[in-house]
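fwd from M.: "can u put these together and see what the complex looks like"

so here's what she sent:
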Amino acid sequence: MSRQLPPFQRFLDTHRDVVWRFLVSAVGPVEADDCFQETFIAALRAYPRLREDSNLRAWVLTIAHRKALDAHRGRSRRALPVADPAAVDGRAQGAPHPRDEALWEAVHELPVRQRSAVVLRYIADLPHRDIAAAIGCTEEAARRSLHEGLTTLRKVVPA
Amino acid sequence: MSSQNHVVERALRRGARSSDRHEDRAAEAARRVVAHAAEEGLADVVYAPVESPFGDLLLAATGRGLLRVAFPEEDADSVLDRISRRVSPRIVEAPAGLERARRELDEYFAGSRRRFDLTLDWSLVGGPFGRKVLHVTSEIPYGGVLSYREVATDAGSPRGSRAAGNALGSNPIPIVVPCHRVLHSGGGLGGYGGGLDRKRWLLELEGALTPRL
């Protein structure tokens, strides 16, 4: 039997966590929610036209990446991207460990493609091939962006 | 250099570890996606579990009408997979879209409703003869019964009792399309997708069968 698309609800339930974590890391906890809504509504609209053998995880992260780009372009003020949405007020339990705060600020300062490459690799755990698909470049370019991003981040993390 | 990369990678992954709070926020955001999709009519199929004396039934509907009533022991994933394949993969769990069907089923099970005023979507019914059989069946009144042969005859195929039985056996909208009202001409109950106990129970509810002591 040929593969078929799962019912959208199952697709949403399967990928909501990774998309959420990607967006919180990419645009910060404040804008993550709007981006999340836009990502999955766009996915729902396009869903029936999707090829049945598509990599759904990479596909939805591609959409999320584009929504994150839009958010950055339209942003009037810069939200601090942190790995934990509770850190939005800076005091809540679960804020990044103080030693990681500088790191997440540095992630935020990365050029967009490098930031997406880093976040897709370490937050969404995507392989290079899927990172390339998500940000729309060759696999080699994705590897380079990831390498460049990590090189920058190394400077802020005490060895 | 690579050892320092490890330090960075470890710190990044530390931030990536999913916490309960992340999962709660993601689940909440996903619920809002579904609510929005259902409100805006972006989903082609909505489904929800509905309580009944048989346990939770799974109901699914499209804009055309009620599409599916599944008994509790049917595997929900396979039911939804089949809808995804045959109707549309744009399926979300949204109880609001099934509120009327839920209410009518409640009333039916309570004995206060004798006919359903629901529009039906026949998309999951296979073949023209199957549709005719289920259409004939949907007209059998509360408290009444027909034999398989009568249903086959009314559907235009007097010798098609067996095919009619097959069509009834795969009725995607049981209870609402009352395939439990079709019996053997000799008086035997025949078969029922939901189990013969339930067929008997429904017929007793409707007064078509006397309860056995």
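replying to her w this: The mean pLDDT of chain B is 92.
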